[in-house]
Amino acid sequence: MTTATGVHILVYPFPSSGHIIPLLDLTQRLLIRGLTVTILVTPANLPLLDPYLSTHPSSLKQLVLPAPGSAISCPPQKRLVSIIRAIRDLHYPMLLQWFQSQSSPPMTIVSDFFLGWTRHLASELGVPRIVFSPSGAFALSVGFSMCRDPQEPDDPEDMNFQVSFPKIPNSPVYPWWQIPQHVRCFRGDPDREFYMSNILDNAASWGFLFNSFVELERVYFDHLKRELGHDRVFAVGPVLPPDNSNLEESASRGGVSSVPCHEVMTWLDARPDHSVVYVCFGSRVVLTSRQMDVLTSALESSGVQFLLCVRGPDEKFASDDHGVIPCGYEARVEGRGFVIKGWAPQVAVLRHRAVGTFLTHCGWNSTLEGIAAGVVMLTWPMGADQYTNAKLLVDQLGVAIRAGEGTQNIPESTVLARLLAISVEGSRPERSRANELSDVALSAVNAGSSVKELDEFVKLLTD
Ligand code: AWU
Predict the structure, then answer these.
(1) Which of 222, 177, 229, 208 is nearest to 405 (CA)?
(2) Is the reported ipTM for this assembly greater than 0.90?
(3) Is 283 in the pocket of ligand 1 (CB under 6 A)?
(4) Could you report the per-residue pLDDT of 185-227, keeping only the tens digit for each?
(5) Which of 4, 126, 198, 368 sits between 20 and 30 A of 340, alpha carbons compared?
(6) Closest residue (by CA) to atom 19 of ligand 1?
(7) Does ligand 1 lie within 6 Å of residue 344's CB atom?
(8) Which residues form the signal peptide (predicted)?
């Protein structure tokens, strides 16, 4: 057990699985480097701290602040900004008071990129604020650019208006419908100033910690450093449970598996190497009826072995269209398909030798986990930064095959079935590239570039 160095920092995740999971993994790495950490969570996320509190009883402390009311009354495109604003209004005064009540308060705030307002809190307290980005440098470059040089069609309903970013390497271009909903709606909307100020507060903060690795996004890290005017940008990922972590640890990462992990592993153990397609769309996506019908039909007719994880409808937003597993489906695919309704032990599944393909929405954590596992990915981005992540995987890295795009490009089930079948072929060019990139990712976090960058970051904090 490393003794704490006395350097005390506040770690403040945005209370959503895809944001809190990687920041907890990063916190583990900060703790083993001797830092003392207070981590701020809302009550619902407190159980996620258990594994870390038990292994770092003296250097990890928890600060539990209430969660704001739900954004149920907001239209979907305004929910994110409504939550960000509610968290700020509730937590800012509480945090200020907490800091002032501490005999040895944190000397630094590390907070999620959706908490840009913490830059003002940090400034009021006279401490630096570091941005934690659970998304990659490519996606953040696009996000910054959207705020600094906003583009919009004359008619906001013109979904095929092309948005281009010539200053960003590889000059990505997007149809208007791929721009995140919460950004599209802001043209002329009062929420726009708030969302943009959050992004610009990140740009004005002391530095960045990215869940990414230099070898994956070098051109984008270089681009960001030029745009920010400094090089306090540290690529420290992929932050994952160590390769040698016990199954229990990776199986409970982010939540309890809806099916006992040993049952999932036993099912996979009975299948040949790289023969199984794992399908999961992250912690937030709920498939529409059409998407679910196409997906289940393609999996059934493709003939592949598959492990399908789908989320049930979010009772808060039950009114939204959501697809369900067809009646009798599980019986029909018995022996070839395994369906998990709820939460899968994703990292443990991806690490299993039987899994050869990952059909993913390209959330950044899933993207990194697929890269680290060396599997072929089929991309079906649904929103947020996922279209950018899919461009990186398919067009730049060549480790993935485009399958679908949101609800705008839902593939024919026969086309998806064929993609599923070819994706598990051993000779796929994407597979050899995926294996090479996996080696690079794992060496980055095993004494490579990401370890050096995190050591450099900690040295700057503790000098
Ligand atoms: P992931 O980033 O893959 O997806 P979301 O949950 O959608 O998170 C941002 O987080 C992304 O860049 C955004 O695009 C947005 C969001 N998991 C699991 O273990 N079991 C499950 O059944 C489902 C998920 C884990 C998975 C991953 C995380 C999901 C940063 O997508 O292993 O670590 O939950 O994050």
Answers:
(1) 177
(2) yes
(3) yes
(4) 666 677 888 888 999 999 999 999 999 999 999 999 999 999 9
(5) 368
(6) 346
(7) yes
(8) none
